Amino acid sequence: MNSDSPQAAGPPPFEIFEAVYRRHGHRCPMSTLGVRLGYAARQLFQSQGGSPGLLAFFSPRTCAVDGIELTTGCSREAGTLVVGSAGHHALTLGEKDAETAIEVSLSAKALAMAGEYRQLSQALVQARPGLCEDELAAREKEREAFLDRLLERLRTLDDEELLNLKDVQVDPALWPPREDCHA
Ligand SMILES: [Zn+2]
Question: How far is the CA of 149 from the centre of ligand 1 (A)?
């Protein structure tokens, strides 16, 4: 194994997901994946002795942001996390003033798994007007069972299956403005 490449961490403990779901207000694939992104990126800095001054960039704006804030300690409020409007579901985390950072992005497999649930939800929204109460209850139960199985997998699959990690050069245009940071 190449010791210069970022090394993936194991899955986060369940309590972190519970905390994110409470804060986020619902359980969903993207908030779950936000935890995976942030936890994996943060672990890489902890294994290097930790860093009090981390800055983060994530794009696009999705439910993942809550999971990222809770696991990285960077936040929009503190000015240490900037959220972009377009991108490939990639979190960049780096030390203040460093020229390189870690980029953790969602794998095609992770995006496909999240997309499956979105399609199922949208299909139910479309079918809803034509369903009687019992049918609707049955379909909603089915969707919840699907979500339970999906979230379990998104919480526990190996990082290698869900995430892509690489070292990147910091793009000063995207990075949080340093003078505004209190990290
Ligand atoms: Zn959500």
Answer: 16
What kind and span of H or E run contains 30?
A: helix 29-46
Ligand 1 geometric centre to CA of 32 (Å): 8
89-120 per-position pLDDT tens digit: 999 999 888 889 999 999 999 999 999 999 99
**34 Cα: distance to centroid of ligand 1 (angstroms):** 10
- The three-state secondary structure class of 102 is strand
Asked if residues 138 and 19 have their Cβ atoms less than 8 Å apart, the reply is: no
Q: Which residues surround ligand 1, an ion (CB under 5 A)?
A: 28, 31, 63
CA of 48 to the centre of ligand 1 (A): 31
CA 29 / ligand 1 centre spacing (Å): 7
Tens-digit pLDDT profile for residues 12-50: 999 999 999 999 999 999 999 999 999 999 998 875 554
High-pLDDT (> 70) share of the chain, %: 86
What is the CATH architecture of 14-171? 2-Layer Sandwich (3.30)
What beta strand segments (E) does the chain contain?
54-59, 81-83, 90-95, 100-106, 163-169
Full-model pTM: 0.87
- 3 alpha carbon – ligand 1 mean position (Å): 36
Domain positions in the chain: 14-171
